[in-house]
Design a protein that fits this description.
about 400 residues; alpha+beta; six-stranded mixed beta barrel; 13 strands
């Protein structure tokens, strides 16, 4: 193998008698360089976007969510609290109640999802502070109920969340009302003071408003009820185990979901987009690998005398196949290695300095997030190696098969 490798290196870097071979070899290496660099960059960007989306969704989706299998709400009982408190894996849990409601401030109105949360909610969602952009994180103080609105909701209402002079009106349909002739008969109405605003992404900023759970239970006539239990774990690795324990303790009347299961469609879309893009780029690299076939075929024609001489010296057909296989692999790997190195440098610069900005102004990040993973480098390396072997195999096989028929005449 060492002899074949040394000869392959010499063929790769030595000047050929036909300049076209040098050009095609260079084009082959450049194609692998560009393809490998693109693969690493695309995979790293998708990794960064996936982590960003997960971090944003962590604000609204707890590690585990428990909801009633039938109906929208369930009774908050001491038994449920005792069962959850007995599970050592749980760091904190919170009862929440969600309903769509009409918000009114001054002359402006906006329909959004109002989420009533208890005092433990911000122990479950510990990073909520990082998304506060205005005012304070207060929901109840001195017998006054406050709300925290999404920045998009505040804009729809024309509300300065931290300095609102008037309370926000919240309307909810009465469960017992059969007539919608007037707002007074058809809706429960209550007032809440704005305390602050948060900004995550447009999807959440224009949708959610947080209020105290007791306040919202009274407004929706859901006294002592919740629509969900949101749970934060001490160790995320125990998620499946805790889901099994909770399901066993609470019974079949409840549905228990992990954060992934709560957003299963979103995560599947992220994964599928990543690997579809990967497949397209690999297909481009396969097409580009035909340059390797052309370069090796021309090299075989040029090295007829060399191959005949090596055959006369006892070089076996198998060794000739290895020689040109190694030649094709080296041709690809030189470009692929440089492509990985440049992609690595660009990813570091994107992380540290920021080269490509994120379009739009509403995002909390200014530049495209990137995250490099060792598995991506390994996967891309294997893809390049497989493409190189397949591209080099046929010229190598052809060179070995034609030794006895054609090359011996040059001795």
């Amino acid at each position: 193998m060492n002899l074949e490798l040394n000869i392959a290196k010499r063929y790769l870097f030595s000047k050929k008698s036909t300049n076209a071979i040098n050009i095609i070899s260079l084009v082959s290496s450049l194609a692998m360089f560009a393809g490998t660099m693109a693969l690493i960059l695309v995979l790293s960007v998708f990794n960064g976007l996936e982590d960003l989306v997960k971090s944003l969704y962590a604000v609204f989706y707890a590690d585990i969510a428990v909801s009633a299998k039938e109906g929208k709400t369930f009774e908050i009982t001491d038994n449920i609290k005792q069962q959850l408190s007995a599970i050592n894996y749980i760091d904190a849990y919170s009862f929440t109640l969600e309903e769509n409601a009409l918000l009114e401030y001054g002359d402006q109105q906006h329909i959004c999802t109002v989420k009533g949360v208890d005092d433990n909610y911000f122990k479950v969602v510990k990073n909520f502070d990082t998304f506060m952009v205005d005012g304070k994180k207060i929901l109840h103080q001195d017998s006054i109920s406050y709300c925290i609105v999404g920045i998009g909701v505040a804009q729809k209402l024309g509300l300065n969340a931290a300095q609102a002079f008037n309370p926000v009106s919240i309307y909810m349909p009465k469960k017992s009302s059969s007539s919608f002739a007037s707002m007074e008969n058809a809706f429960n109405k209550s007032y809440v003071t704005s305390a602050g605003a948060f900004a995550v992404s447009d999807e959440f900023d224009t949708k959610y408003t947080f209020v105290p759970l007791s306040f919202f239970q009274s407004l929706t006539d859901n006294f002592g009820k919740a629509s969900q239990i949101e749970i934060n774990l001490k160790n995320k690795k125990n998620t499946e185990q805790v889901i099994s324990i909770i399901q066993q303790k609470l019974g079949k009347t409840f549905t228990v979901k992990s954060r992934y299961e709560q957003n299963e469609v979103l995560y599947k879309i992220l994964k599928s987009e990543k690997w579809i893009t990967f497949a397209i780029l690999v297909l481009i690299m396969i097409i580009a690998s035909f340059n390797i076939i052309g370069a090796l075929s021309m090299l075989v024609l040029e090295k007829k005398k060399d191959i005949a001489t090596l055959t006369a010296l006892g070089f076996a057909k198998q060794s000739i196949v290895k020689l040109f296989l190694l030649e094709g692999i080296l041709m690809s790997c030189v470009g692929a290695f440089l492509g990985m190195f440049v992609a690595f440098i660009l990813c570091i610069l994107q992380q540290k300095v920021g080269i490509v900005p994120m379009p739009g102004t509403s995002f909390l990040v200014k530049y495209y997030p990137v995250q490099m993973q060792a598995l991506d480098f390994i996967t891309v390396s294997l893809v390049v190696l497989i493409i190189s072997i397949l591209a080099a195999y046929f010229p190598a096989k052809k060179a070995a098969a034609a030794v006895e028929k054609e090359y011996l005449e040059y001795l």
